[in-house]
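User: Before I run my own analysis I want an independent prediction to cross-check against. Here's the chain; please return only the structure tokens and, at the end, one sentence I can use as a sanity check.
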Amino acid sequence: MTRETIGNPLSWGAQRLAGAGRGLGAAVEGVASHDMARPRINRIGMADIRTALRLGIEDFAALRSDVISAVVLYPIIGFVLAVWTFNAGQIHLLFPLAAGFPLIGPVAAIGLYEMSRRRERGDATDWRAAFTTLRGRVLGPVLTLGLLLVAIFVLWMIVAHAIWAATLGPASYDSLLDLLRDAFTTNAGWAMIILGFGAGFIFAAVVLCISIVSFPMLIDRPVGVPVALSTSLAFARHNPGMTAIWGLIVALALMLGSVPVFAGLIVVLPVLGHATWHLYRRAVSWPA
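Assistant: Structure tokens:
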């Protein structure tokens, strides 16, 4: 009896460690998958974008209770960071923060891609089932690309702060109205706006090109990061106009969703996430 009492916890712990080791190994292996099959890049038009948006809205309408549960943390994080900018005397970072949130939007939409994929196949579509896919060979590539986007977001915030320091800084502002007044009524303020928009456009374009297809592809196929990234870049290169239009739609929608203290993202993010999945389905074709 004593041996069983001691042995069972030890055996259980050994099994858990072994399982964790296998999961970690699969996650690392998935970053550079041996499955190097590449899809055919399709040319898309406005009809495809409209269809993707329509299907995204339909997915949200059918799954809204579950998708809201999946993304509710995203606007909460945005609100907490916005409160921090006020309390820490960093009001000048509020607008870069709101503008930079779309840079990590693809990470927040991971569960939404899986929900759309499951609904398309007629499988269970609740948010718990959606996140069960984030393990094994899927987890490693998704985390790798996610960390890349987080790094780009951090770099954007550093650049935005440097632009402010070189124009309106380094003195801090006590109120948002004072910042807006100086931004729109002084030469230094307009220099900050122009430089900020230019830098923001570059960051947004980079993230759009590397993520428009890659994240949904990693959920759909065990292709690994190199294939997913190269396919996403190839799609953007073959469809520059439609990629730009999609990026504009995403940016405007996320900007509108961020205005009321990020609360609108509870609706905007799910619709865009589902729509991105359906755009991916039209962007590439896999061999039978």
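Sanity check: Residues 43-285 form one domain.
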